[in-house]
Amino acid sequence: MNLLRLALRSAWNRRVTLALIVCAIALSVTMLLGVERARIAAREGFSQAVSGTDLVVGARTSPIQLVLYAVFHLGEATNNMLWKSEQQIAGDPAVAWAIPISLGDSHRGFPTVGTTPAFFEHFKYSLGAPLAFSAGRPFSGLFDTVLGADVASHLGYRLGDAITLTHGSGGIGSVEHADKPFTVVGILARTGTPVDRSVFVSLEAIEAIHLGWQGGAPPPGGFSIPEQFVRKFDLTPKTITAMLVGLRNRAAVFHVQRAINEFAGEPLMAVLPGVALDQLWQVVGVVEKSLLAVSALVVVVGIAGMAAAVLASLNERRRELSILRSVGAGPRHIVALLGIEALLVTGSGAALGVALLVALSALTGPWLESNYGLPINALGWSVDESLLLAAVVAAGFAAGVLPAYRACRLALADGLTPRL
Amino acid sequence: MDPSPSPLLQAENVSFRWAPRLAPTVELDRFTIAAQERVFLYGPSGSGKSTLLGIFGGVLVPQQGHVRILGTDLGSLGASRRDAFRVDHIGFIFQQFNLIPYLSVVENVLLPCRFSRRRRERAMQAGGNLEAQALRLLAQLDLGRALHARSVTQLSVGQQQRVAAARALIGRPELIIADEPTSSLDAGRQEGFLELLLAECASSGAALLFVSHDRRLAAHFTRQVAMDEVSRAAPALGEAA
Lengths: 420, 241
What we know:
heterodimer; B: 38% helix; 20% strand
């Protein structure tokens, strides 16, 4: 107890220096845990791009690719699936709902998703949140479109604006579907998922704008079917890109998956989105690991700073340690004094860092979640974080105690009168 | 053998070198201090005085020889026993900067009592409680209560040295080792300090080993020893000048 008081008094005597070290450690801890939280949030945000969907179905390809285009609307499907297969699967008694997805067009770089109003009803993200409209309503007319939040905000669209779609993903030489403009009838609330970056139209509209097209090229000779006649055609799609399936009973998921994989009509594949997302995340995981490495480095720098400061302060403390030795303090007392101080400094640095982190995530969490889809939990505390924190404190303690050995050697070599 | 009952401090055949390749800093055949004796040890700087005090204090361990204090061979004690033994039986006063700046005057005086139960108990016996004994010693060393509230860094050097003397004396250790305690005081104050110190050593029954390069103070002591008489490693006084 005496030693603790002595250590506290001594630390208080050097409070300005120590306060600076505490701040440095606090900032490193905030950074380390902040990056760790952002990393976990990114992972969660990623895996929460779709939720409530039990199976993603499409033509046979790799599961990652299927999820990439069905959920993230990225890339192009090599093969489509037949609409009648979709109808057949959707009609299965085990299936509660089905959302068809038809890709291939874009608007100024944002992918166009042809789907049905079922999308707005059944698609869920995050932990089961449904889609909400910040303005307007789902599409109902043939040339109605619903925009994701990013599309609307980036391009400044409002309800009633007219937009045209581009065939393909919108590179050089792409052809505009300029003859058939769409009217914005709805804008979705921000989700932080790929939905925000997509333009939604009906499946029939996708058919309509491609009437007369052959092999991905517009009808020859500038021929186009005027809008008013389009409705006279059969706009039922022949094929779609993929479909999202929700089951009545999730327990049946493997049964249904197998049934689809063995589908008689055409070669199809059903994947569990969670599994494929995990595989995909492993590809992206390098980034996450380098992030963690960077923040670990920051902590190392913070603790090295502390070790340097402790070593530097030893010289100014030589006299103090000699006096203590003359009144009976042994090396173990000196190690204890320095150890208590190191623990105090790293401990309060860590505590301050955590407080800073909680304050920061409470302040910026809602904004991060709505703008970047990073679900950051201000008060949530994980075992991993405790371990990281314990590691930081342990490293700080070691960095503070190692100089104690030097202090003892100095104190021993100094005898009772330090040679300065 | 020494005819008197075993001396307070007895050093025999001691040789100490800072590193194996260096010449010995201290090399002595025999040196003793009797109980309550006042020994004046003088020698030029660099003659190994501080090293010798480190050896007597058990902080430095000689490569050869034995140092016995109250019959206990310091070399036979483990490091932490030696630290405890030192504080139990020896009080130190240094040249300057004796005090720990972040402790109060009284806390500085009571430092040995934190590390030594013996000193604590002896201080309590003498003064009723620790604080009272510290205050009593400070008063005897002419440090009024008004000074106690001050930070020790605000005290004059002379006042600091008297606080250090009170710290060395509290709990009545058998030996006070003073390493040039007056050298940072001006001549007028040296005498005053020395008189107070000698009076307190006498009243607590402690022996005093007083180290200085200034022989003018030697008259107050029962025995004067030159460093080159003690240690063969020390340069002869004549050569050093």
